[in-house]
Amino acid sequence: MRFGITLPNFGKYADKNEIIKIATAAQELEFDSVWVSDHIVIPDTHEGFGEVFYDPIVTLSYLASITKKIKLGTSVIILPYRNPVVFAKMVSTLDQLSGGRIILGIGAGWLEKEFQALSIAFSKRGEITDESLKVLKTLWTQENPSFAGRNFQFSDIKFLPKPIQKPYPPIWIGGGSDKAIERAVTYGDGWHPVGLTPEKLKEKLFIIQDHLRKQKKEKFVISLRRNLEITDKEIDGNDTLRGSVEKIVRGLKEYKNIGVDHLLLHFLSGTSDGVLNTMKRFSKEIRPLI
Known about the structure:
The chain is α/β, with parallel strands linked by helices. It has one domain (2-289): Luciferase-like domain (TIM Barrel). 40% of the residues lie in helices and 18% in strands. It contains 9 helices and 11 strands. The chain has an 8-stranded parallel beta barrel with strand order 1-2-3-4-7-8-9-11, surrounded by 5 helices. Helix 3 (84-97) crosses helix 5. The longest helix has 18 residues, at 198-215. The termini are close together.
């Protein structure tokens, strides 16, 4: 099982120096990946995101120049917010410049007021996401790409550079709904839900396996984003990765045994220095036991 770390590209610790500090520490501690989240505008009704939200692709582009080997991921890009032709160019350029280190987490979005601010139909987000995924793959794989869909059309064009990773960077589809799971198997290379307990994840994996069998798809990644906190406080049992080191180790082994390939960790440590300390403890005390 591989392990990734979320970066503070939003929230109260959103800051260039904090992002650099955690990303470089993650590489030094041999974590497998670092991840940024995505929103473009934040409605006043959702203050929990904080005041600053750095753009994910620009942030990863900056990090690509100061890291060497760690994977760079999005958890997750809200695809219908972006023109897929422009976005395909950004991702393929970044994959080239980073040496093929991009993992592309993608979602359809959920925040209706944000869609309204961007003049994008909330009711069409699923349709736009599916079509945009087809556009991305067309541009990344065809020498003379052409496409005719309901929302996007093009032909008689060249598209370069192509991504280094072939046929394209891994696409992990976020979301826990049945539709998101179907989209992940149909268009993605993996599934990337958030916050599921081992029990809930098992239930969803039955649905995943059924779709994989129907589509005769064998290679497929199960990733998961989950909060982690090392603490002596009493924590609800459903918070699988919050509590003592022993409890966290048990939870990680349970996720590993049911088939999680890549676990993305969001450390709840109060301060950025607390995050760094938890990263070090995870590397020294926890990961060797998994």
